[in-house]
Amino acid sequence: MEVLLVIGGIVLIVVGLIGSALPVIPGPPLAWVGYLLLKWTRYVADNATYNNSLWIMLFLVILVTILDYVVPVWGTKRYGGSKAGMWGATIGLIVGLFLGPIGIIAGPFAGAFIGELTTGKQQREALRSGWGSFLGFLMGVGMKMMVCATLLFLFIFYMVR
């Protein structure tokens, strides 16, 4: 049974890393569940440090999951986007989810760009807003990958310890 828990944990963490780049897959939560599976093995039996890290990582997973939805909108605003651009980025992200990986990446950019054009902004200003949305998306992916990579590191750390 212990072998299945370890294999399941590794699989969930790897899927979590992949899910960090694909918003359709909830990467950090899956990776955290993979890390949680280690709790029921002999590798961390009653280890207080592991228990503390489990709760800290849960907090980070929740924080990153929330920020993943906020950062592209913040990026749009930071690069001069209006409310229409922020709404466009949000709608673009939602529509992009149905269009696969390319849609997920291009959706917030296109949505912010179109949203800004509807307010009468010039193409150059609208492109800048779309670029901010894209940078926000990349920041979200980077944050999720860091959390998942940390979970993978901790998993391996407790396995070989």
Summarize the structure.
This protein has 6 helices and no strands.
The oligomeric state of the chains shown is single chain
What general form does the structure show?
Answer: elongated
* Protein structure class: mainly alpha
Q: Can you give the mean pLDDT? A: 88
* Beta-strand segment tally: 0
- Strand % is under 5%
Report the major sheet: none
Uncertain regions: pLDDT < 50 for 5+ in a row?
A: none
Write the element-wise H/E pattern from the N-terminal end onward.
HHHHHH
**Number of folding domains?**
1
Helix content: over 70%
Radius of gyration: 19 Å
- Alpha-carbon distance between the two ends: 20 Å
Number of helices: 6
Detailed description of the structure:
By secondary structure, the protein is mostly helical. The protein has one domain (2-160). Helices cover 83% and strands 0% of the residues. The protein is elongated and about 65 Å long. It starts with a helix and ends with a helix.
